[in-house]
């Protein structure tokens, strides 16, 4: 790349649309992901996360719009673009009746990787699967299966990896180990685009894309998304959170109320006025308040707020 030239993005999406029959799944998406960035796509079930990943893989063909991988158009140069990409799907898609070694060899040969033995040793060591190389894939734990799938994804040295909810159903320890591996990949210069239902995972990404009903609502760093949250967030711990949630919603005194297990978050335009109103409403209803305090907004607060606002806006059919 010459001095002063603009870096080629890892992913460039312009006006992307896709439908399953009459039902739109992706609506006019524009997105740019820079090289060596970790981008997390977050949204409710059916929002379009998996569809977006599959479009980037070339598994699905867009109804409209353009997709480029490191400058290569997926429509015009699908094989060339695919050479740059590794894909890990939601479901374990390896061969249960093959060993760990055999699965990596199989995917190496599919990708035309010759003399793959050194690469396999490197990946087995990297994913800590060396002691299990002779074990059948069907006998691995969920976390180990995902690490094997990632090893197979990396065998041809892709510049971009696409991960579709890679840690869903994986135990917390394996999730942490998986993220350690991803951080190493970032240091090696690999770009990561992933979908995840876990907002604590999304916090670790360079940027987060919030998607709802096929629309990309925002694509910013976690800090900027949280800063977009208008108003103050009040955390309330009380004797009856469900009843308290209904009362505060019905009162209209607070912008929105979000229930989180044994506590609730209420958004107020003004922190002091919101706290006064909340205390009055709950005390008059005979609900004991154990704690009421202002807390920093979380990515979850911002996400729920954006989705709720999006859901309340009318859309053309």
Q: What percent of residues adopt helix (DSSP H or I)?
A: 25-40%
Secondary structure tally, helices: 11
Based on Cα principal axes, name the global outline: globular
Average the pLDDT over all residues and give the rounded result: 89
When the domains are counted, the total is 2
Number of strands: 14
Topology-level CATH name of the largest domain: Rossmann fold
Structural account:
The chain has 317 residues and is an alpha/beta fold. It is 36% helix and 27% strand. It has helices spanning 49-57, 78-82, 100-110, 117-126, 142-154, 172-187, 199-202, 222-227, 241-251, 271-284, 299-312; strands at residues 11-20, 23-33, 38-42, 64-69, 72-73, 85-88, 160-164, 191-195, 207-212, 215-220, 232-238, 256-260, 263-268, 289-295. The strands form 3 sheets. It has a 6-stranded mixed sheet, with helices on both faces. A hairpin with a 2-residue loop joins strand 4 (64-69) and strand 5. Helix 3 packs parallel to helix 5 (142-154). 35% of the residues are buried. The mean pLDDT is 89.
Write a short abstract of this structure.
The protein has helices at 49-57, 78-82, 100-110, 117-126, 142-154, 172-187, 199-202, 222-227, 241-251, 271-284, 299-312; strands at residues 11-20, 23-33, 38-42, 64-69, 72-73, 85-88, 160-164, 191-195, 207-212, 215-220, 232-238, 256-260, 263-268, 289-295.
List the helices and strands and how they pair.
Layout: E1 11-20, E2 23-33, E3 38-42, H1 49-57, E4 64-69, E5 72-73, H2 78-82, E6 85-88, H3 100-110, H4 117-126, H5 142-154, E7 160-164, H6 172-187, E8 191-195, H7 199-202, E9 207-212, E10 215-220, H8 222-227, E11 232-238, H9 241-251, E12 256-260, E13 263-268, H10 271-284, E14 289-295, H11 299-312
